[in-house]
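Researcher: We're teaching a course module on how sequence relates to structure. For the next exercise, students receive a sequence and then see the predicted structure as C-alpha cells, so they can try to spot secondary structure elements on their own. Here is the exercise chain.
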Amino acid sequence: MRVTDPTGNIPVIGFGQVDPGIITSPPTVTPSGSNTYTTDVVVTPTELGKRRVCVQTKNTENVNMDEVCYNIETSEKNSPGQGSPKFTEPTVSENSVVVCQPGQTCHIPLTYETSNNNCEKVTETSYITGVHIFQGSSSVGQTCAVDVGFTPTPDAGGTQHMCFKSGFYTNPCVGTQQMCFKPG
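Model: And here is the predicted structure for the students to work with:
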C-alpha cells in the first residue's frame, strides 16, 4: 500500500477494525520516493469465512487521519506455524541490508524448515532486476536451502526490497512466509 505524507514525516500506520479469526503483524513503512512510502501489511486468517481488516494512517497524536478496509475470504484453514515453510537461520534477518557491489554477483543463502520433508520452491515476489534463484535446493531432514544470486545494476539499492516466499500456495495469505531484505 502506498502512503503519501506532504509534511515529509514517516507516516504512522496501524490497524482499525480487525475481525476475530485474523492475526496481524506490525506494518512496515519504507520510503519509496519524495514524501511517498510503501507500507507492507501482513495478515493471517486462522478461520474460514469472510473477515474484515482496516488499516489506518495516524497523526503524531495517534488520531486516525485516513482508513482503508479489506474484505478477506478464507476458503482454506491454516493455523499459524502448522505445515507451512518458515525461513530460519542462517538466512539474513527480516529487513537486513545486504551489501552487494554493482556489476558483481552476490550469493545469498536462504534456509527454511518444512514439515513435510519436501524442499518446496522459493519464489521472488519483488521482481528486482538481476536476481536468480538456484532452486537445486539441498536438504538435511526438514531444513532446506537455496542460493540466491544477485547482480545489482549501478542504480539498484536505495529503497528497494527483495522479497521471497517459500512453499506452494493457492492463497498468498495462507501457508507461506514472506521474508524481505534490502540490497544496499
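Model: If you want an answer key for the exercise: The chain has two domains: 2-74, 86-183. Residues 2-74 form one domain.
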